[in-house]
Design brief:
- The protein is an all-alpha fold and 319 residues long.
- The chain is globular and about 70 Å long.
- This is SEC7 domain-containing protein.
- It holds the Pfam family Sec7.
- It comes from Pagothenia borchgrevinki (Bald rockcod).
- InterPro entries: F-box-like_dom_sf (IPR036047), F-box_dom (IPR001810), FBXO8_F-box (IPR048003), Sec7_C_sf (IPR023394), Sec7_dom (IPR000904), Sec7_dom_sf (IPR035999).
């Protein structure tokens, strides 16, 4: 849609090019006259297409306007992209400058759903007088509260009717939101194992190489900094989910959830070994194959070698 709004007919583009070339030539002529006192004129510079100024001027009927460009003159996709870089305070200030844009409910709806992909309130019948602008501010405040105290943040969302106290709804909200502090999120998931179970089922690891799937998993559910019961729980849940999503591949390779569990631990240890500056003698590919085959007997040397190459070339699985 945005490209269609900016596309102009060739004839109109040529007219804009000629107009811009004439203006540049007039400016240069004035500069030369002021410098030498004589009427000198150089060839105008080549213009390869209309710039954003001329496109905007064309859309507003050729009238000159000074100051900020009105975002209403931009394509909706570009306007939402620009405003998505602002926080709630800056958006309110922008709404004071662009008053019509600040009251556009479709714009605020797009900002809400692009920042928080899932909320229970999206599926409810909205009451009369509902404002997506107010919802945006509440979601922003709720995330700030969550990043300070996870339980208070979730309670805030429930009190405002934004979320429903159901593990699947909470898991979807976490999965499609990127504004939650990962440390507070880790504490919350450690306490709410029912939400963690639903969050794991939202991942689809079909046709993914094991290290890449593990990176994707830890991108949403951050690994703890130390080994412990929580890390073992995460790897166990990941192993079962990976086998469920790749049933045919797992059967062909002779893997099982226990074998995938062992491979995941081997990948984590190899990641630390290869990326840590404190480890001087890095593990070789031959050593990794030998050590892994001792724990996972059904895995082929080629498959384990590909695992090593992935970590060596791409990096840590839980970075």
């Amino acid at each position: 849609m945005g490209q269609a709004l900016w596309r102009l007919p060739p004839r109109q583009q040529q007219q804009l090019q000629e107009e811009l070339a004439d203006r540049l030539a007039d400016q240069e002529e004035g500069q030369e006259q002021g410098r030498d006192g004589g009427p000198q004129r150089r060839a105008p510079q080549q213009c390869y297409g209309p710039d954003i100024y001329h496109l905007l001027r064309t859309r507003i009927g050729g009238k000159e306007r000074h100051g900020f460009i009105d975002l209403e003159m931009l394509p909706p996709e570009l306007g939402i992209t620009i405003l998505s870089y602002l926080n709630a305070t800056d958006l309110c200030l922008a709404g004071c400058v662009w008053q019509d844009l600040g009251n556009d409910e479709y714009l605020w709806q797009g900002l809400c759903k692009s920042t928080w992909g899932h909320c229970s309130i999206y599926n409810k019948r909205l009451p009369a007088g509902f404002s997506y602008r107010r919802l945006y501010l509440q979601l922003d405040e709720g995330c700030l509260t969550f990043n300070a105290n996870a339980q208070e943040g979730i309670s805030y969302f429930m009190f405002r009717g934004i979320l429903v106290d159901h593990p699947k709804e909470l898991a979807k909200f976490i999965f499609y939101t990127r504004r939650l502090n990962w440390k507070m999120l880790r504490v919350y998931l450690d306490e709410r194992r029912d939400v963690l179970d639903e969050l794991v089922t939202l991942h689809n690891f079909s046709n993914q190489f094991l290290p890449n799937a593990l990176r994707d998993f830890f991108r949403h559910i951050h690994a703890p900094e130390e080994r412990g019961e929580y890390l073992e729980t995460l790897i166990t849940k990941f192993s079962h989910r990976f086998c469920t999503c790749n049933a045919v591949l797992v059967r062909d390779l002779g893997l099982s959830p226990d074998a995938v569990y062992v491979l995941c631990y081997s990948l984590i240890l190899l990641s630390i070994d290869l990326t840590s500056p404190h480890v001087k003698n890095k593990m070789s590919k031959r050593e990794f194959i030998r050590n892994t085959r001792r724990a996972a007997h059904n895995v082929s040397d080629d498959f384990v070698g590909h695992l090593y190459d992935n970590i060596y070339l791409i990096g840590h699985v839980a970075a």
